[in-house]
Design brief:
Strand order of the largest sheet: 2-4-1-5-6-7
Radius of gyration: 23 Å
Strand content: 15-25%
Helix content: 40-55%
Order of helices and strands: EHEHEEHEHHHEHEHHHEEHHEHHEE
Shape: flat
Oligomer: single chain
Largest sheet: 6 strands, mixed
Number of strands: 12
Structural class: alpha/beta
Length: 365
């Protein structure tokens, strides 16, 4: 599994330009007017991970298969979206289907690119989007809470749990805070997600800056970073323009281009790493002569769950996980060397998969 991340923001902040760069396509129409994106564009991108190339070289794997992430380019929201303004209802529904929100914030000046509200103010833009999401959630919960109360009074255990979560969320929303501020435990997370609240989604702020500020950002992106730190969110600086130029270059020319503009890596890499941290995801590998492959699970996932990502039968018949840490696999120059060094382990059902584990599953058919 990877994650499905919805790219949102006000019109003309660089959402579609960033999406095109992320997916290395021109599927999303980037134009200087609101609502140029009428239907959400969906693109899968490979997760760049140099460890996978290293493992493939050691095992002489014929094929390299990275794990993939899904990005959804959602049309620009405007003030009043929660009441249907600017095709708001359709777009809010698209956000509801995503696991996380990549909120693109305009942190650049450009007289040729209009701003829907006539000024460049990233914190105000963030507040506009957040307010619309919270208003939509408030309306949704207030319409549903009476039904939850009725079912809870009837002794429905699930309804009681949902009602408690709904009431905590309503309290936060009425105080002007997003639903994710309700303080939900890991055990409550699944039920909380079932409420389908837009402002419960974890947020990654993508600060779209001018080319000269692509490395370290500018004063506006620093304001966003400070806000993210207060919220427990994540902020990443990118130049969508630079990313779109990198995307169309041959791979062997991209490194030279990056060096020329003072960047060590494409912004895509930073966005993906931030997304992984945001959703608490880790990567494990399966390696052999046929293929070296990366897989994604949530942090804390047990070995049988990881096996199930590959095939449901692996989880059902799970016996053991043959496990070698990435560094040990590389140091031993493969499985045989890791075994000789005593770094090969057999882990059971309670083993929590670690980022970088090289795994082979034993299972009963």
């Amino acid at each position: 599994m990877g994650f499905k991340c919805g790219i949102v923001g006000l019109p003309n902040v660089g959402k579609s330009t960033l999406f095109n760069a992320l997916t290395q396509t021109a599927a999303a129409q980037a134009a200087n007017y609101p609502f140029c994106t009428i239907e959400p564009n969906v693109g899968d991108v490979a997760v760049p991970d140099p460890r996978l190339t290293t493992l493939a070289a050691i095992a002489s794997s014929k094929e390299i298969i990275p794990t993939r992430l899904t990005f959804v380019d959602i049309a620009g929201l405007v003030r009043g979206a929660s009441k249907g303004e600017g095709l708001g209802n359709q777009f809010l529904a698209n956000i509801r289907e995503c696991d996380a929100i990549a909120h693109v914030v305009r942190c650049f000046e450009d007289g040729d690119v209009t701003h829907v509200e006539g000024r460049i103010d990233p914190l105000s833009d963030i507040a506009t989007i957040e307010t619309e999401l919270m208003l939509a959630d408030l309306d949704s919960l207030e319409r549903r809470v009476a039904t939850m109360e009725k079912r809870a009074k009837g002794g429905d255990k699930e309804a009681k749990e949902l009602l408690a979560l709904a009431e905590r969320s309503l309290a936060a929303l009425r105080e002007g805070r997003p639903a994710r501020a309700a303080g939900v435990s890991r055990e409550e997370h699944k039920a909380f997600q079932s409420l389908g609240l837009l402002s419960s989604k974890p947020v990654l702020y993508v600060c779209n800056v001018e080319e000269a500020a692509a490395d370290k950002g500018n004063a506006r992106s620093e304001m966003v970073r400070e806000l993210a730190a207060k919220e427990g969110a994540v902020a990443v600086v990118v130049s969508a323009k630079i990313e779109s130029e990198i995307a169309v270059l041959p791979v062997d020319e991209q490194k030279d281009y990056l060096e020329a503009v003072g960047l060590a890596e494409p912004g895509l890499n930073r966005v993906i790493r931030a997304g992984y941290d945001l959703l608490h995801l880790v990567t494990f590998f399966t390696v052999g002569p046929k293929e070296a492959r990366a897989w994604t699970v949530e942090k804390g996932a047990r070995a049988p769950q990881a096996a199930g990502v590959i095939h449901t039968d692996f989880e059902k018949g799970f016996i053991r996980a043959e496990t070698i840490a990435y560094d040990d696999f590389v140091a031993g120059k493969g499985e045989a060397g890791a075994r000789e060094a005593g770094k090969f382990r057999l882990e059971g059902k309670d083993y929590a998969v670690q980022d970088g584990d090289v795994l082979h599953f034993r299972f009963a058919t």
